[in-house]
Amino acid sequence: MYYKQMILNRPFSIEQVKSVMGSYELGTRQLSLSYTRFKALAKFAQIDLQAFERELKGLQGDYSIGSETGIKRQLLTDEEIVSWYNQLKSPLSKWCFGALATWGLRPHELWLIDLDTLSKANSGLITVLPEQNGIVGKGKHPRSRSILPCRPNWFYDWELWNYQLPQSKGVTARDLGHVIGAQFKRNKTPFLPYDLRHAWAVRALHSGLPTSQAARAMGHRLTVHERIYLYWIDEQ
Fold first, then answer.
1. Which one is the CATH code of 73-235: 3.30.300.30, 1.10.443.10, 1.10.3720.10, 3.40.30.10?
2. Taking a C-beta distance cutoff of 8 angstroms, is the pair 215, 224 a contact?
3. pTM for this structure?
4. Which of 1-15, 60-74, 139-153 has the lowest average pLDDT?
C-alpha cells in the first residue's frame, strides 16, 4: 500500500518518502508502519540511514506531537502562518492554505466542506460532511461536524468564503492529500499541510476550548486527541 504511492519513474529518495508520510496523520498506526517499511526499503536501496532518520525526525517513535521527537519544535506560530500565507501568489494556493490554517482540516476535507455553510454571513462556522461527490471522510463511520475558526479575522481577511480547489482525478483521502502536498512543495512551503492542523489544535487549547470540543471539531476520538496533544493538554 505504501510503496504504491511512490512515483515509480523516479529514483527512490528521502524526499519521496517525506511526501508520502506527510499525507498521514500523526499518532496513527499507519504512519508508524509506513516509517518502518520505508526505512527497510531505504536500507535495501543503500540510502544513508543516518540521513534518513535525521530528515524524518518526528515521524518515528512516540507519535505524540508534544513528545521529544522534534515535532514540538515544528509547531507554527500565528505570525509564521500569516507570513507564509502572504508569500503565496496563487489565489488557489492562498485559499487552500488559509482554509487548512483557519479550520484545522485534514487536507482531503477541503473537498468535504458543505458549501451551504461557507458564507460571509455565517461568521466562519462551517460544516464538514462525511461524504460529498464520491469523496468520503476518514474513519469507518465518518460524521458531520461543525468547526469555528480560532482566528475569525483570518476568515474575513482572507475572504475564505470564496471557495477554490485544485483539480484532482482521485477521490480518496490519500489522493487528495497528495494534491495539497504537491501544492505546498511547488510553493516551497517549508512545512507540511498537517502542521497547520496541529497549530489549530494547540491554538484551540490555548484559547480555552474544552478538550472534548476540540477533539470533536477535529474529528478525533477524545482518547486519540489526548494522546497526540498530551503535552499541551497537560500544560493547559
1. 1.10.443.10
2. yes
3. 0.71
4. 60-74
